[in-house]
Design goal:
By secondary structure, the chain is α+β, with helices and mostly antiparallel strands. The protein contains six helices and four strands, in the order H-H-H-E-E-E-H-E-H-H.
Length: 139
């Protein structure tokens, strides 16, 4: 139930922050929703698809089989990370996403949703392929 509520919240936030997501949610592009898992979001690509990836769904306790709360939303060339739980940077790296290319949003200030921020912030400044950030890190 918690995962479903998180997914609903993320889609609603996407509708607020992204006109692209609002267009998809409004039904203007239902065919795109059928292909959502087939088209990866690449920077600079013009696309109307978006993808939601649960990077971690664990609670505050460290677990080797589940990373901390974090969700990646890819919409067009945007890469939005909602919450930054333990090992968020590891999961992004496993997906081959340079840490300097993501924008971070925090849903609330519980430790299990924020503990990964220093890692994302500092590692994002490393050179490509790890980071590549060229702008200030804003949350």
């Amino acid at each position: 139930m918690h995962r479903a509520l998180c997914a609903v919240r993320i889609v609603l936030v996407m509708a607020m922050v992204s006109p692209l997501a609002a267009k998809v949610l409004s039904g203007d592009n239902l065919a795109a929703m059928d292909r959502i898992d087939q088209v990866p979001a690449t920077p600079g690509a013009a696309t109307t698809d978006f993808r939601v990836t649960l990077l971690g769904t664990a609670t505050h306790g460290p677990r080797p089989d589940r990373f901390g709360a974090s969700t990646l939303v890819e919409a067009g060339s945007e890469r939005l990370v909602f919450d930054c739980g333990r090992s968020c940077t590891t999961r992004l790296w496993q997906l081959k996403i340079p840490l300097g290319t993501v924008k971070l949003f925090i849903t609330h200030l519980h430790a299990d949703h924020t503990v990964g921020i220093p890692d994302l912030w500092l590692t994002g400044w490393l050179p490509v392929p790890y980071g590549g950030r060229r702008e200030p890190f804003r949350v």
